[in-house]
From TrEMBL:
Native organism: Ridgeia piscesae
Domain ELP1 alpha-solenoid: 707-903
SUPFAM superfamilies per record: Tricorn protease domain 2, WD40 repeat-like
Signal peptide limits: none
Protein name: Elongator complex protein 1
Ranges for domain ELP1 TPR: 910-1073
GO biological process: tRNA wobble base 5-methoxycarbonylmethyl-2-thiouridinylation
Protein family (similarity comment): Belongs to the ELP1/IKA1 family.
ELP1 N-terminal second beta-propeller domain residues: 395-683
Length: 1302
C-alpha cells in the first residue's frame, strides 16, 4: 500500500567530461563520482558541481584515438585509493586518484567481454573474448580459468532415477510418434540482444551468475557459479532470453528479460536454474529493448532500463527515448511505482544504484547531465482534516491508480475499491488538504486533478482517463476535473521535474523543482481550470534541498523541511520563507533528515513530526521513539508502530515535555500500547473514528481498533450526549458499560431519561444494568484515558453506593417513560442493587395482571436463584405468593407442601418465629419468639446464646426483669470468652454480678473501675493493697508506669516502689516530683542518674544503627528501581514479552496472548490486573488450605529483602517505613531525656543526642520523595509509612522549638 516518494533530486548539467559516459562508480567516502568515456576517466564532485580530475586513456594506448574504445567496467577500490578500469581490448588498469597516475596491472589478449568485482572486493570475475572465465584476487593474481560454456549441468544437476522416460509416457492425440521426435535446438529470437556477456554477483558474494551466448548454438544460456569458480547449475533454455542480468542481493532470485511473441517480460530464475515467475512490461512486443536491470541494495526495488526500438524500415534518422522504471512487489503482485522518461536528445547512458543508501539512483545522460534521485517509502492517504474524510489510500501501479476508502470498506491489495486509469504512468499522488480530492502527477509532467464534489463547469470528460469500480459501487466515485500542464520557465526538463506536490486548496498547488543550474525552487502555482494549466505564480530558491513538505495543522502554511534538518514556514502568496519557531521562540531544526514529515497539534502547540530512515521519530527536536517503523495522526492521538511489534498511541492533549518524560521513564500505560504482528506498518487511521489499518510484511491487511481510539470515540459521543452511539461502540468493542456513568456521573444521572429513550431496547437496558460495578472504571480499568485533571474532577466517588444510585435512577426513568414496556428492566434494576430488593420485585409481580405474572416471574427466576426467591416469598408470610413462586420454579410439591401445611397450624407469632428460624433470619425470629411469653423463654435464650443476639435481645425485655439479667449475664460470659474484658465487666455490672465484673476489670487493667468494684464488695485494707500491687504489675508490663505509681502511692502506701517504677518508665518529671514531695532525694544519685546514662547510651546506639540501616536500604532501593526501569525499557525496545519465545508471532486479535500480555505487572503501583484474575484465584485457593502459621511464613517470605526477590522493592519500602515510624515514636522520649540531662549538667550528652537525632531526621526528610514515588499507595507494606511521611513533612525539631542551645 506504499508508494515511492521522491525526497531529493540533484542535477549537474552540461558536464562535457560526462558526454558519452559508459560506466560510473562512486567513492563513498568523498561522494565523488567517477565516469568512464571512450577517451578516458573523469571525477565529478556533485557537491561543488565541478569535474575535479581527468585523465586520458588514449595517450597511453589503452583506448583507440578514434573514439571507438569501450570501457567494460570500472570499480573504485577505497583501500588502494584507485579506480580499476577494464577495457574491451583486455587491459586492466589502476588509476591512482591521489597521484593521478595510471598503472597497467594485467592484460588479456583475446579481450575482456565482462568484468565484475565481488561485493566484498576480494575477487574479480572476468570473461574473455575466447569465452573463458578468469577469476583473480584483489591483487590481480589469477586463480583459475575455465570455459563459460561447459557441457555438464553443474553440481545441482537433478538426479534421474530412470522413471518417466519419454518413450513410456502417454502423448495424447500426438500419438506414439511423438516419443521418437527429437527437440530442435532453440534459436536466439531476440534480434535486439547486444550479444555481450553479463556477470552478476549475489549479495553475500558466495555465488555469481553469467549470461552469455554460445557461439556454437546461438543460444543465450544462464549459469551460476560458486565463489570457488565451480559450476553450480545451468538454467533451463528460455526462447527469447535477453542480455539483462541481475542477481537479487538477498539471494533468492536472478532476474533477466524475455521477449515473447505476444509480450515482453521480466523473468526470474532460482539459483538451481528453474524459472520462478515473471511480470510483463507496459510496452508492446517490439516497442522497447531492455538494456539492463538493477536491484537496489536491500532487494526491494527493481530498476529496468529500457530504450525505444526504431519502427520497421526507419532506422537511419531514429532517435530513441529512454525509460527507467522502478518496480516493487507486494502480495505477489508487481507494481510499477516510478517511470522516468528521458527525451531522445538526452537519453540515458548509464544507471547505477547507490550501495549505501538503498533508494538513491544515479543516471548519466548522453548530453553530459548527471542526475541523482533519492526516494523514500510513503503512504498516499487523504489528509483527514475534515470530518467526512474517507481515509482513502492511493496505490500507484503504472498508469493505474488503485484507490480504497478504508473508512467504508477494507479491500486487500492488489485489489482496490475502484481504479483510475491514466493515459501514461503515474509518479506521484497528492491528496487535498481540505477534502478527499486528489492530484496525480504523470510521467509526462502533466497533473490530473480529480474531485469527489458535485459536477460543475470545471468537469472534464477526458476519454483517456477511465474510472472503474471493482464491483457494484458502494462508494462515491471521483470525477476528472482535467489534465493540466505546468506552465513555468527556467526549470529543468528532466523527469520528475515536479516533486513534493502539495494541494493546499482547490486553487493553489505547491511543489518543488530544479532550475537550470540545479538549485531547488519552491513554487506556488495557481490552477486555471479553464485553460487546463497550472501557472507558477511565485517561486523562490530555498538555499538547500527540500526533503519534505507538510501542511499546517489548522493553517494554510507549509512546513518546509530541508535535508540539513532545518524547518521553515512558508505561506503561499507571501513568497517568504521564515524559520519555524517553537513555543519557546527557538528556531526548529530536526536532529536528522526526515523523509516523512507531518504537522499536528500537541498540547495546543503546532508541532512538526518527522520519521527518519533509521526509524527515529521526532516531535520538533524531541525524540519520541528510536524504533518507529510508521506513524499516523489521529484527531486525539499520534499512533506509531515499532520494532517491538507494538502499536503505541500517544495522546495529543499532553505537552511535548510530558510526552518526553513519559517516553524516557517508560511510563506508557498498557491501555495505550497494543501488540501487533511482527513487521506490521500503519497504512492509515480513521481520523475521527476507531479504525487502524495495518499491512503485514507479506502484503495482506489487518484492521484493529486500539482501545485508546475506541475510548476517545466513546468519550466524544458521551460529551455530546449520544448515548446510543456510545453504547453500540462499547458493546461492539467490549468496553465496560460502567463507563457510560463513570465518564461524567452528574451529567449521566441528569440525562437518564434521554439515555433510556436513545437506547430504546429492553435487552440493552438490562445489559447495562447487569454490568454495573461498585467502582469507578475511569480510575481503574481506563485510567490512562482519563489522565488529565479536568476529566478526573468530573468523576465522583459513590463508592459501594454506585450500583444502588444508578439502579434507582434507571428504575425511576423506566417507570416514567413506559412502565409496562420496561417491566423486565424495572425488575432487573430492583435485583441489581447491592442488597437486591426481591421483596419489592415480588410485590411488583403480585400487582400485575394474571396474564403477565408468569412471564415476569420466569424472568425474575432467571436473574436470581430460585431458592433465594422462594425464601424471600416465605419471609413475606404470604402463603399464596410462596405457592406461586414454588409452582413457577418447578419444585417438587412433596418438598414444600407438608412444610407449609405444618406452618398454617401454628400460632401467628410462633409461626413467624419458625419461618424466620428456617430462613436463618435470627433477628426476626428473636423478635417473634420474645412475643410468645414466658413459656418460650428457654427457646429465646437458646436462640440468643447460639447466635450471639445479645445486643438485639436486651432492648426487648425490661431492665428490672429476671429475663434481662439472665441475658445480660450470658452476654458477659460471651464477651469474656472473646477477650473483651472491659465490655464484659460493664455488662456484669448491669446484671449485678460485681465479683465477675471485678475479675474482668483486673484482666483489662482498668484499675479505676476495679477499685470501684472493690469498694462495692467492701474489700479490706489488706485486700486493697494486694489488689493494687497486682494491678500495678500489670500496668508496668504495658508501660503505664505513671498509673502504676499512682496505685502504689495511693492504695499500697509504697512511695519508694512508686519512685522506682517511674524511673524505670523514663517518667523523669513525675519521679522528681515524688522524690521532693516525700523527701527521698537520695534516689537521684542511686537510681535516677545511672538510669539516665543507660537510657542515653541505648538511644545513641539505636540512632546510629537506624541511620546505617536506613542508608543501606535506601541505596539498595535506588538500585532496584533503576534495574526495573531498565528492564521495562528493554521490554519496550526489544522483541516483546521476554517470557515467551514465540510472543511476536501473535497479533492482538489472537486470544492466545491476551492473558500473558495484559496480566504482566510492569510498574511499582500496578499490582492489580483484570486479565490475571484466574491465576490469582487459583493462588488464593491454594493458600486457603494452609494453616495460619504457614500463611504467615509464606507472607514473610513473599516480602523478603533477599536481593532479586520479586517484591524486593516493596519490602525495602516497608522496612524503611518501619524505621521512620520508630524514629517518629521516640521523639518524645528523647525530648524528655534531654530536658532531664540539662537539669543535672549533662549538656554535652544532650547535645550529642540532639545532633544524632537531627541528622537522622534531616536524612529522612530528604529521602521521603525518593521512597514514595511512582504513585505508591496505602496497599500492602508500601503504604505503611505514608502517615509517618506526612507527619515528618510538617515536623519541628523538639530542642530547637524549646529555644534551647546546648
Amino acid at each position: 500500500m506504499r508508494n515511492l516518494k521522491l525526497v531529493e533530486s540533484v542535477q549537474v548539467g552540461d558536464v562535457t567530461a560526462l558526454v558519452g559516459a559508459q560506466c560510473i562508480c562512486v567513492d563513498y567516502d568523498t561522494k565523488a563520482v567517477y565516469c568512464a568515456t571512450a577517451n578516458g576517466m573523469s571525477m565529478l564532485d556533485p557537491n561543488t558541481r565541478q569535474v575535479t580530475k581527468q585523465i586520458s586513456l588514449v595517450s597511453d594506448g589503452y583506448l583507440p584515438p578514434d573514439g571507438s574504445g569501450i570501457i567494460v567496467d570500472i570499480e573504485h577500490l577505497p583501500d588502494q585509493m584507485a579506480v580499476c578500469v577494464a577495457t574491451w581490448r583486455g587491459d586492466l588498469i589502476l588509476w591512482n586518484t591521489s597521484s593521478n597516475e595510471l598503472e597497467g596491472v594485467g592484460s588479456v589478449d583475446s579481450g575482456l567481454r565482462s568484468v565484475s568485482w565481488s561485493p566484498d572486493q576480494e575477487l574479480l570475475a572476468l570473461t574473455t573474448g575466447q569465452d573463458t572465465l578468469i577469476m583473480m584476487t584483489r591483487d590481480f593474481d589469477p586463480i583459475l580459468e575455465v570455459p563459460i560454456h561447459p557441457t555438464e549441468f553443474g553440481e545441482a544437476e537433478p538426479i534421474n532415477v530412470g522413471w518417466g522416460k519419454k518413450t513410456t509416457q502417454f502423448h495424447g492425440s500426438e500419438g506414439k510418434q511423438a516419443a521418437l521426435q527429437t527437440a530442435e535446438p532453440l534459436k536466439v529470437e531476440s534480434m535486439e540482444d547486444d550479444g555481450r556477456t553479463r556477470i552478476s554477483w549475489r549479495g553475500d558474494g558466495q555465488c555469481f551468475a553469467i549470461s552469455a551466448i554460445c557461439p556454437k548454438t546461438g543460444e543465450r544460456s544462464l549459469r551460476t557459479w560458486t565463489r570457488e569458480g565451480v559450476l553450480y547449475s545451468t538454467a533451463e533454455m528460455v526462447p527469447g532470453l535477453e542480455q539483462a542480468l541481475a542477481w537479487k542481493p538477498s539471494g533468492s532470485l536472478i532476474v533477466s528479460s524475455q521477449r515473447r511473441p505476444n509480450k515482453h517480460d521480466i523473468i526470474f530464475f532460482e539459483r538451481n536454474g528453474l524459472r520462478h515467475g515473471e511480470f510483463t512490461l507496459p510496452f508492446g512486443v517490439h516497442d522497447v529493448k531492455v538494456k539492463e536491470v538493477f536491484w537496489n541494495i536491500d532487494s526491494t526495488v527493481l530498476a529496468v532500463w529500457c530504450e525505444d526500438l526504431p519502427p520497421e524500415g526507419d532506422t537511419a534518422e531514429f532517435a530513441p527515448k529512454s525509460y527507467v522504471e522502478l518496480w516493487t512487489v507486494g502480495n505477489y503482485h508487481w507494481y510499477l511505482k516510478q517511470n522516468l522518461e528521458f527525451a531522445a536528445s538526452d537519453r540515458v547512458e548509464t544507471v547505477q544504484w547507490d550501495t549505501e543508501q538503498a533508494y538513491r539512483l544515479r543516471v548519466v545522460t548522453s548530453s553530459g547531465q548527471y542526475l541523482q534521485y533519492t526516494w523514500a517509502w510513503t503512504t498516499s492517504v487523504s489528509q483527514g482534516s475534515v470530518v467526512d474524510d474517507q481515509a482513502t489510500v492511493g496505490v500507484i501501479d503504472g498508469a493505474m491508480l488503485l484507490l480504497t476508502p478504508f473508512k467504508d470498506m477494507i479491500v486487500p491489495p492488489p485489489m482496490a475499491a475502484f481504479t483510475v486509469q491514466m493515459p501514461c504512468a503515474i509518479n506521484q499522488v497528492a491528496f487535498s488538504a481540505e477534502n478527499n480530492d486528489f492530484a496525480v502527477e504523470l510521467s509526462d509532467g502533466r497533473v490530473a486533478l480529480l474531485s469527489f464534489g458535485e459536477k460543475d463547469k470545471t468537469g472534464d470528460e477526458n476519454m483517456s482517463v477511465t474510472i472503474r469500480p471493482a464491483a457494484a459501487p458502494k462508494c462515491v466515485l471521483p470525477r476528472l476535473c482535467g489534465i493540466f500542464s505546468i506552465d513555468m520557465t527556467n526549470t529543468s526538463t528532466h523527469p520528475l521535474m515536479c516533486y513534493h506536490l502539495t494541494w493546499i486548496n482547490p486553487d493553489t498547488i505547491v511543489f518543488c523543482t530544479l532550475d537550470g543550474a540545479g538549485s531547488c525552487l519552491l513554487v506556488s502555482a495557481t490552477v486555471d481550470y479553464t485553460a487546463k494549466t497550472i501557472v507558477a505564480k511565485d517561486n523562490m530558491c530555498v538555499g538547500g534541498s527540500v526533503a519534505a513538505l507538510a501542511v499546517g495543522a489548522h493553517t494554510s502554511c507549509l512546513a518546509v523541511h530541508l535535508t540539513d534538518g532545518t524547518v521553515c514556514r512558508y505561506t503561499p502568496g507571501t513568497n517568504t520563507l521564515l524559520p519555524w519557531e517553537t513555543s519557546t521562540g527557538k528556531e526548529l531544526r530536526l536532529p536528522q533528515c526526515c523523509p516523512l514529515v507531518d504537522v499536528c497539534c500537541i498540547g495546543g502547540e503546532e508541532v512538526v513530526i518527522g520519521l527518519t530512515e533509521r526509524y527515529r521519530l521526532y516531535a520538533n527536536d524531541i525524540e519520541l521513539a528510536s524504533n518507529c517503523t510508521s506513524f499516523s495522526v489521529h484527531s486525539e492521538y499520534l499512533l506509531l508502530s515499532t520494532h517491538a511489534h507494538t502499536c503505541r498511541c500517544l495522546s495529543l492533549t499532553h505537552t511535548l515535555a510530558e510526552l518526553q518524560t513519559s517516553t524516557e521513564k517508560c511510563l506508557t500505560p498498557v491501555e495505550l500500547t497494543r501488540r501487533i504482528e511482527r513487521g506490521s506498518r500503519i497504512v492509515c487511521v480513521e481520523t475521527h473514528g476507531t479504525k487502524v489499518v495495518l499491512q503485514m510484511p507479506r502484503g495482506n491487511l489487518e484492521v484493529i481498533h486500539p482501545r485508546a481510539l475506541v475510548l476517545a470515540s466513546v468519550k466524544h459521543c458521551l460529551d455530546q450526549l449520544k448515548f446510543a452511539d456510545a453504547f453500540v461502540l462499547m458493546r461492539k468493542h467490549r468496553i465496560n458499560m460502567n463507563l457510560l456513568h463513570d465518564h461524567n456521573p452528574a451529567v449521566f444521572l441528569n440525562n437518564i431519561d434521554s439515555f433510556v429513550r436513545q437506547i430504546d431496547s429492553v435487552s440493552y437496558v438490562n445489559l447495562f444494568l447487569t454490568a454495573l460495578l461498585n467502582e469507578d472504571v475511569t480510575k481503574v480499568m481506563y485510567s490512562a484515558a482519563y489522565n488529565n485533571s479536568e476529566e478526573r474532577s468530573r468523576s465522583q466517588d459513590d463508592g459501594p453506593r454506585k450500583v444502588d444510585i444508578v439502579s434507582d435512577h434507571i428504575r425511576g426513568a423506566l417507570e416514567r417513560i413506559d412502565a409496562s414496556k420496561y417491566l423486565l428492566s424495572i425488575l432487573t434494576a430492583m435485583v441489581r442493587r447491592t442488597t437486591p430488593h426481591l421483596q419489592a420485585a415480588l410485590d411488583k409481580i403480585k400487582s400485575l395482571p394474571k396474564d403477565c405474572v408468569k412471564e415476569a416471574l420466569d424472568y425474575l427466576l432467571f436473574l436470581v436463584d430460585v431458592d433465594a426467591l422462594y425464601n424471600v416469598a416465605l419471609g413475606m408470610y404470604d402463603f399464596d405468593l410462596v405457592l406461586l413462586v414454588a409452582q413457577s420454579s418447578h419444585k417438587d410439591p412433596k418438598e414444600y407442601l407438608p412444610f407449609l401445611n405444618n406452618l398454617r397450624q401454628m400460632e401467628e407469632n410462633y409461626r413467624r418465629y419458625s419461618i424466620d428460624l428456617h430462613l436463618k433470619n435470627y433477628s426476626g425470629a428473636l423478635y417473634h419468639i420474645s412475643q410468645c411469653g414466658q413459656d418460650h423463654f428457654s427457646e429465646c435464650l437458646n436462640l440468643v446464646t447460639q447466635h450471639a443476639l445479645y445486643a438485639e435481645a436486651l432492648p426487648l425485655f425490661d431492665v428490672a426483669s429476671e429475663q434481662y439479667k439472665k441475658i445480660a449475664f450470658a452476654y458477659g460470659q460471651h464477651l469474656s470468652s472473646r477477650g473483651h474484658h472491659e465490655e464484659a465487666g460493664i455488662i456484669y455490672v448491669r446484671s449485678s454480678s460485681h465479683q465477675m465484673a471485678l475479675d474482668e476489670f483486673v484482666k483489662c487493667s482498668n484499675w479505676r473501675q476495679a477499685m470501684c468494684m472493690a469498694a462495692e464488695l467492701k474489700f479490706s485494707t489488706l485486700q486493697l493493697t494486694d489488689l493494687s500491687r497486682t494491678l500495678a504489675g500489670r500496668l508496668q508490663e504495658t508501660r503505664r508506669h505513671v498509673e502504676a505509681a499512682t496505685l502504689l502511692s495511693d492504695y499500697a502506701d509504697d512511695v519508694e516502689e512508686a519512685i522506682v517504677t517511674l524511673i524505670e518508665g523514663s517518667e523523669w518529671d513525675e519521679a522528681l516530683r515524688l522524690m521532693y514531695k516525700f523527701g527521698r532525694t537520695d534516689f537521684i544519685e542511686t537510681n535516677l542518674k545511672p538510669t539516665l546514662t543507660d537510657t542515653y547510651q541505648h538511644h545513641m546506639t539505636f540512632l546510629e544503627g537506624a541511620r546505617a540501616d536506613f542508608e543501606r536500604h535506601l541505596c539498595r532501593l535506588a538500585i532496584v528501581r533503576q534495574e526495573k526501569r531498565k528492564a521495562w525499557l528493554d521490554l519496550m525496545e526489544g522483541a516483546g514479552d521476554p517470557g515467551r519465545a514465540d510472543a511476536d508471532l501473535y497479533s492482538d486479535t489472537s486470544s492466545a496472548m491476551g492473558d500473558s500480555v495484559s496480566g504482566r505487572s510492569v510498574g511499582a503501583g500496578s499490582q492489580r490486573s483484570y486479565a490475571s484474575s484466574s491465576q490469582q484465584s487459583t493462588t488464593s485457593s491454594k493458600m486457603s488450605g494452609r494453616s495460619g502459621k504457614s500463611r504467615r511464613k509464606a507472607e514473610r517470605k513473599r516480602w523478603s529483602l533477599r536481593e532479586g526477590s520479586p517484591h524486593e522493592e516493596l519490602a525495602l519500602v516497608d522496612v524503611l517505613a518501619k524505621i521512620i515510624r520508630r524514629v517518629d515514636d521516640m521523639k518524645g522520649e528523647v525530648s524528655s531525656l534531654m530536658k532531664t540531662q540539662l537539669l543535672f549538667g549533662s549538656g554535652q550528652q544532650a547535645a550529642s543526642l540532639q545532633t544524632q537525632l537531627d541528622a537522622l531526621l534531616q536524612l529522612i526528610d530528604k529521602s521521603l520523595d525518593h521512597i514514595w514515588e511512582n504513585g505508591l499507595t496505602g496497599e500492602g507494606p508500601a503504604g505503611q509509612g505514608n502517615s509517618v511521611s506526612g507527619r515528618l513533612g510538617r515536623r519541628e525539631f523538639m530542642v530547637e522549638s524549646m529555644g534551647m542551645h546546648v
